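Summary for the lay section of the report: proteins are chains of building blocks that fold into shapes. Here we show the chain for Urocanate hydratase and then a coded description of the shape we predicted for it.
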Amino acid sequence: MEVRLSNQLPVYPSFVPGIRRAPDRGYSLTPAQTETALKNALRYIPEELHEVLAPEFMEELMTRGRIYGYRYRPEGDLKAKPVDQYKGQCLEGKAFQVMIDNNLSFDIALYPYELVTYGETGQVCQNWMQYRL
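The coded shape description reads as follows.
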């Protein structure tokens, strides 16, 4: 099974001032590791968008120390919705989505833009592309 995001490029979201951001992890990858990181981040994205997103992801990697895919983050504060408002084929999957949105709320997450909930290391997803899937 192949899972891909839409071929429509989302608008880059703005960041709300005053919301905690994860510290820069530093950039110390070898060229081979950098190539692997970019390939991993692009794997769910249609190939026609790679030329646009690869430089953006490289910039994130160099300035933040990892690729978050901020462009794929929904705008504003994430809030859990009633379970029946989520797409899905089973209640358990929809409930999982409710939990993710609840944990990524500005009021709850430690670093919501970087998908970090509790503590300094726990992430809900590796990046925003996985969140969208």
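Put simply, here is one thing we learned. The chain has a mean pLDDT of 93.
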